[in-house]
Design brief:
10 strands, Rossmann fold, about 270 residues, five-stranded parallel beta sheet, 9 helices, 2 domains, single chain
């Protein structure tokens, strides 16, 4: 079990998601005991829940959970359901494990301040990149990692990690610096890449980037950033931005959840 734990820790340190199966209940003759675990990562499988058909169906469940994020329970009578020689029953809980996502926030200005605060509250590990020491301070960004460099400096020094568990928000005080940050990130495999700005600014930045880098995929950039909630103040804009981050992380549509009252059956028809 120690080997499973160590491999899970390595996967999380790499910023990868994993799926973990744990035997939670057994009855009768079974090939494993409660607490036995099987881990699926990008590196393969570690551990065992007993081998044979029960292992095969558990691996299928691990793959499903890694794909959709939903926990599930594998429960079988080994002989009757799976044709195994063992005549007992096993229950196995399968769950997804992932590291806390990182939000790389380029800029330490008036919109970044509430964005960092709200992002921390919903589970993001926040990294603030801004060379201005009067803005990028512990007092303004408590519990955040602060990188006092320009975007290019931070990128070249590998001071920021840009991987599939990283979300990037570009929100600096200068259009040229926004463009610099976008150029650094656009080819990286981040989970989310967004930039603040008007539609006119976004179009101009995209045109300049594609002129210099024809293969740059600007289609993956969320810009203008955030969900359309009519935000005006910095705090409201921060809510809009973080709402889009959560939507991207959880696979939400970003639309309203209000029930269409026209679809409610007439009370008389149910009686």
């Amino acid at each position: 079990m120690l080997k499973v734990t160590l491999e899970l820790m390595r996967a999380l340190e790499r910023g990868e998601a994993a799926a973990l199966a744990t035997v939670t209940r057994v009855a009768g003759s079974t090939p494993q005991v409660p607490g036995a675990r099987l881990l699926l990562t990008t590196q393969g499988l570690t551990g065992t829940v007993g081998g044979g058909r029960i292992e095969h169906v558990t691996i299928d469940a691990l793959r499903q959970t890694l794909d959709d994020g939903q926990p599930r329970t594998v429960s079988h009578h080994l002989a009757r359901d799976l044709g195994m020689c063992c005549g007992g029953e096993m229950e196995i809980f399968v769950e997804r494990a992932e590291a806390e996502p990182t939000l790389v926030l380029f800029g330490a200005g008036h919109v970044s301040l509430p964005t960092a605060k709200i992002a921390r509250q919903v589970g993001f590990d926040v990294v603030v990149v801004d060379p201005r020491d009067e803005f990028n301070t512990d007092e303004r960004f408590p519990e955040c990692t602060r990188v006092q460099m320009t975007p290019s400096e931070a990128y070249r020094a590998s001071a920021i990690r840009l991987d599939p568990n990283t979300y990037v928000v570009i929100c600096t005080h200068d259009h040229a610096i926004d463009e610099e940050a976008l150029r650094c990130c656009i080819a990286e495999p981040t989970a989310y890449l967004g930039m603040i700005g008007s539609k006119r600014k976004v179009i101009r930045v995209f045109q300049r980037i594609q002129a210099r880098e024809p293969n740059a995929d600007v289609r993956r950039v969320r810009a203008p950033i955030g969900l359309d909630i009519g935000a005006l103040t910095p705090d409201e804009i921060a809510v809009s931005i973080v709402a889009e981050l959560v939507s991207a992380r959880r696979g939400g549509s970003g639309g309203s959840m209000t029930l269409d009252t026209n679809q409610i059956p007439d009370a008389a028809s149910d009686s």
